Predict the 3D structure of the following.
Amino acid sequence: MNQIAKENVLAASEGLKAVAHELRLTVLCHLLQGPMTVSELLEITGAEQTNLSKHLSKMRLLGLVETEKQGNFVQYRIANPHWGDVINALKKIYCPD
């Protein structure tokens, strides 16, 4: 049987901790629909601007989201499509239609 490298397990654990926060998970669920601005995320999540900005910054540092400037706006999107797969799997388990 193949060994799983401890550093890979630790990295996966840190990634799961990063998405385990309610607001960050909510943001990622909405970003599955496509890129969104901070204003759009504020409206859809109902979060306070400072709280959302803090979490978006942390999500950028952790590599969960990335940004792209669109005119005067910055759009956020899921940085790695595999995170989209993870979020979709969680939605299938916890948010069945």
The mean pLDDT is 93.
